[in-house]
Amino acid sequence: MANSKYEYVKAFEQPDLLLPNTWIVVRIDGRGFHKFSNKYSFEKPNDRRALDLMNAAAKAVMTELPDIVIAYGISDEYSFVFHKSCALFERRSSKLVTTIVSTFTAYYVHLWASFFPETPLSAPLPSFDGRAVQYPSVQNLRDYMSWRQVDCHINNLYNTTFWALIQIGGLDAKSAEKELAGSLAADKNEILFSKFKINYNNEPEIYKKGSVVFRDIAQSKTQEENDRKRRAKARITVQHVDIIKDEFWERRPWLLSNKPGKIPKEP
Amino acid sequence: MANSKYEYVKAFEQPDLLLPNTWIVVRIDGRGFHKFSNKYSFEKPNDRRALDLMNAAAKAVMTELPDIVIAYGISDEYSFVFHKSCALFERRSSKLVTTIVSTFTAYYVHLWASFFPETPLSAPLPSFDGRAVQYPSVQNLRDYMSWRQVDCHINNLYNTTFWALIQIGGLDAKSAEKELAGSLAADKNEILFSKFKINYNNEPEIYKKGSVVFRDIAQSKTQEENDRKRRAKARITVQHVDIIKDEFWERRPWLLSNKPGKIPKEP
Amino acid sequence: MANSKYEYVKAFEQPDLLLPNTWIVVRIDGRGFHKFSNKYSFEKPNDRRALDLMNAAAKAVMTELPDIVIAYGISDEYSFVFHKSCALFERRSSKLVTTIVSTFTAYYVHLWASFFPETPLSAPLPSFDGRAVQYPSVQNLRDYMSWRQVDCHINNLYNTTFWALIQIGGLDAKSAEKELAGSLAADKNEILFSKFKINYNNEPEIYKKGSVVFRDIAQSKTQEENDRKRRAKARITVQHVDIIKDEFWERRPWLLSNKPGKIPKEP
Amino acid sequence: MANSKYEYVKAFEQPDLLLPNTWIVVRIDGRGFHKFSNKYSFEKPNDRRALDLMNAAAKAVMTELPDIVIAYGISDEYSFVFHKSCALFERRSSKLVTTIVSTFTAYYVHLWASFFPETPLSAPLPSFDGRAVQYPSVQNLRDYMSWRQVDCHINNLYNTTFWALIQIGGLDAKSAEKELAGSLAADKNEILFSKFKINYNNEPEIYKKGSVVFRDIAQSKTQEENDRKRRAKARITVQHVDIIKDEFWERRPWLLSNKPGKIPKEP
């Protein structure tokens, strides 16, 4: 039974190579996580265990894929950044995206019991979808990262106020929503402080800033190691810091240069 | 902190809609499963537990995604078929592929303990990559399915003989490979029978034919239910049968027509 | 001066192969032809010379590209159909589209003087843009063709009535537009007949039906010639006939089968 | 006759937007110009009239499409560059490529008689194909331009020597080819000089450097005009100069900045 008769079907596979010299961002999102978070009684507005599980899965992804230079997570989404010089899987979009989605999902499910020991998973299981986006310049990439972190801030300020109105203020969801309709950031800060004695600035950084995952390779010394090996071994750290201002990037030049100790250069 | 300044980065997301009226096949493959199967001491040439786990994950995917009409699995790969009329996720390629890959991975990891109770998973965890392929006609789709099933046969006959030479015949891998170099199907059948009294035809169907997963909706009666609901509730069956000949398809016209009881019509 | 240093830029060229086994339609449109038709005082509602020039250019395109099986033109647009089995230029989209657009433009400009001997072309010259669309089934392709021919009918009935109101009825453009706002086909027929004694059915077929260009190979005999050569030599005819009903296609089975004398088969 | 029944076919048109913030190069090539140049007895190795016609057509394209910032031509090919900020046609690839190909072809055919007054065009007419390529950085774009100019040099040195061997040296094509097989640039310079007293450096710049087409807007003054208008009115110049070294670009900062008088900034 020769297979040559059917092999023509391979010709229907179409190439999906991403453009060289562009920053590749793979963003994944939890599927139906609103429902999922209710099923497992996630704490509102933020469930620390759920965020820690997301971060643990993201660290595992970065450990298995040393080509990722930085990742950023908020709520049930995570963005993974491949350097513009990345040649992994010949830059095939499907391959890059599905590998990240699958690896992330595997660790999320596997590590669930460590973070939610009392509520075992049951069908339907958590899952994630994802897509790749290409950014030609460092400015575009940094604006993408800033976009996600500003979104984190806006959502968290809203959610913190919304749930304070419900959990402390005793409002129902509809009334809380109405109270906040059209409010500015200053208004929400004011509600939090005057009504609930909550100073938003004192909220945990992980909720206000999201989670930045990257390799801390300042201390690496042996210049003989090749970069990929070095990256694989470098300590991966999770921090909750500002990535909008220049300081974060200037103090960690290896993130954009993709070379330990090197300063990024454009164009 | 308004976000409008950064929102332009959304314009870099490029559409990836699949062509309407084409059959969509999403094929997923285990990443590095050769190494993985060694790590967990999979039985050779086939590990029944591993195949049953693949099938259980595939069934779960089909349960969560009623738009899938049929799936076919061999070894560490699985192909999922969406009907040409499928409108799920507006036919966005990334969304379709990542949802399947993620859901499959979630169940594979979650169900692992049921099939391998004595060997718990540890990092690096199993993961899968995937891609979508479009087939314009029923003939193309059936040829794709035939291609996979012929591949199953060719690989299984080779592996069965190869491992018999090693496990029963006492050869090492290199000698077994050499013995089989250039051999035809008839030669392998002959080696199996004359040397090891193995009649390949009597090997388990699951190894020879792979696994076909579909909804058995012949018995459905209530015509008022809408199709999607009906599909969701229909019993999903895993069978190890020939899908190359017409008979399989002619006896189950709802698979290609996407309507219970309806006969497919082309063009 | 070696070129190897710069050759990496070739890697930025991305493949654009169209899916196999789909009908390829390349539709081209005149750029800014409203203005263009005013500049050269095209007769309204239809300028026979302009349509004849379009048809002459389309015939030339089909002569130079024997892989085109049929073309259909109305006003300043033309659709060229490649058979689903077409392998020209490896089915590269850019190559197919630009070759048609360029060849069409070349003949349009070159033949202009034959159709408009008294009004020589001057800058800005006429030009056309184009795109390729893939249709998986014969039904989709025929619906595309029907779509264009129904459009021809709708536009021509409107334009015929609109210009009768202006040219015979003495209305200005605004009043004519107002008169026709919300009118049905029957209303326009009635206006034409009662006000201007024009029976729309007696209007020239070329205006009502558009132009269908194809090879008339019913008479071909020598079975030894290969198909491409045969196609290249076959007489190309321009007709103004109905392509919505089955009759046109059933009487010319070679158009869909892509083989002289063969009946098309699907799937 | 309503058209709604068929309008679904529009859904088969797939978007082809180019990535924002990338330099777009549209390169067009003469189709079958080897044969074409023989048919019209082009002079070898270079036909000045043919190059002047190419340049005239390129100038016309740039006049009609002010979004093009620079173009570069050699032999029967031309590359047109849109600035990375270009938003013309929403950056739709087909639209950009076909508009350039069609406009170029129109002028090539229309202007033919001015450059070849004694040899009127006849079918098959000259035509061009084209494709778009995206370059993320100024460096990539400049390397593309350098690649084409180095190619011009390599081809012209070869052709000059090859045709000298034939036209002056009396060799036939095969012998000339053999003579040059494996030769380096220095060898060809030596052959030209020692055998034919030709100093390659003294060859016309248009043959050695190709043709660079751009707007000379150093003199523009009225700052109130908007850029597009200004570009449309600026004098388009054709020069035969080095575009590999920095000097060309540094002296004309408006080419990369896309703003008269502005210096380009990256990233």
Automatic annotation (TrEMBL), chains A, B, C, D:
<dbReference type="GO" id="GO:0008193">
    <property type="term" value="F:tRNA guanylyltransferase activity"/>
</dbReference>
<feature type="domain" description="tRNAHis guanylyltransferase catalytic">
    <location>
        <begin position="6"/>
        <end position="136"/>
    </location>
</feature>
<feature type="binding site">
    <location>
        <position position="30"/>
    </location>
    <ligand>
        <name>Mg(2+) 1</name>
    </ligand>
</feature>
<keyword id="KW-0548">Nucleotidyltransferase</keyword>
<dbReference type="InterPro" id="IPR025845">
    <property type="entry name" value="Thg1_C_dom"/>
</dbReference>
<feature type="binding site">
    <location>
        <position position="76"/>
    </location>
    <ligand>
        <name>Mg(2+) 1</name>
    </ligand>
</feature>
<dbReference type="InterPro" id="IPR038469">
    <property type="entry name" value="tRNAHis_GuaTrfase_Thg1_sf"/>
</dbReference>
<feature type="binding site">
    <location>
        <begin position="29"/>
        <end position="34"/>
    </location>
    <ligand>
        <name>GTP</name>
    </ligand>
</feature>
<dbReference type="GO" id="GO:0005525">
    <property type="term" value="F:GTP binding"/>
</dbReference>
<feature type="binding site">
    <location>
        <begin position="75"/>
        <end position="76"/>
    </location>
    <ligand>
        <name>GTP</name>
    </ligand>
</feature>
<dbReference type="GO" id="GO:0006400">
    <property type="term" value="P:tRNA modification"/>
</dbReference>
<feature type="binding site">
    <location>
        <position position="29"/>
    </location>
    <ligand>
        <name>Mg(2+) 2</name>
    </ligand>
</feature>
<keyword id="KW-0479">Metal-binding</keyword>
<keyword id="KW-0547">Nucleotide-binding</keyword>
<dbReference type="InterPro" id="IPR007537">
    <property type="entry name" value="tRNAHis_GuaTrfase_Thg1"/>
</dbReference>
<keyword id="KW-0819">tRNA processing</keyword>
<comment type="similarity">
    <text>Belongs to the tRNA(His) guanylyltransferase family.</text>
</comment>
<dbReference type="Pfam" id="PF14413">
    <property type="entry name" value="Thg1C"/>
</dbReference>
<dbReference type="GO" id="GO:0000287">
    <property type="term" value="F:magnesium ion binding"/>
</dbReference>
<keyword id="KW-0342">GTP-binding</keyword>
<dbReference type="Pfam" id="PF04446">
    <property type="entry name" value="Thg1"/>
</dbReference>
<keyword id="KW-0460">Magnesium</keyword>
<feature type="binding site">
    <location>
        <position position="76"/>
    </location>
    <ligand>
        <name>Mg(2+) 2</name>
    </ligand>
</feature>
<keyword id="KW-0808">Transferase</keyword>
<comment type="function">
    <text>Adds a GMP to the 5'-end of tRNA(His) after transcription and RNase P cleavage.</text>
</comment>
<protein>
    <recommendedName>
        <fullName>tRNA(His) guanylyltransferase</fullName>
        <ecNumber>2.7.7.79</ecNumber>
    </recommendedName>
</protein>
<dbReference type="InterPro" id="IPR024956">
    <property type="entry name" value="tRNAHis_GuaTrfase_cat"/>
</dbReference>
<feature type="domain" description="Thg1 C-terminal">
    <location>
        <begin position="139"/>
        <end position="245"/>
    </location>
</feature>
<feature type="binding site">
    <location>
        <position position="29"/>
    </location>
    <ligand>
        <name>Mg(2+) 1</name>
    </ligand>
</feature>
